[in-house]
Specification:
With 138 residues, the protein is an all-alpha fold. It contains 1 helix and no strands. It is rod-shaped and about 180 Å long.
Length: 138
Amino acid sequence: MFVSAEIITIVLSAVGLLLTLGGTMFAGFAWCIRRSDALRTDLTNVEKSLGSRIDGVERKLTARIDGVERKLTARIDGVERKLTARIDGVESSLGARIDAVESSLGARIHTVVADTTELKIAMARLEGPQRHLIVATH
């Protein structure tokens, strides 16, 4: 059987083309894998960098919040002490005033009770005892 040179050339070209395409596909796939590994490494580095930055910011914010909290607590305690002293002063002042008003009103009430008793006695004297068995004339 006789095979012509053109057929051998076509077959060899097809085999060469398949090898070239296969090699190119393999190289492209290898490049994709290498690139994804490089991206993973870059992302890992970025994650570590961002993690350390976030931790630093968290520490700074925690310290700042703690400082503000201490200042506010001190201010609130001072205001509480001042208000407590002020309320105690008002309470003692009002207590003394209420006691004075109570004693004054008590004295006035006792005076009214005594006056009422005297008025009852005076009315009883004016009316006198009721007359029994006296017939009125026409």
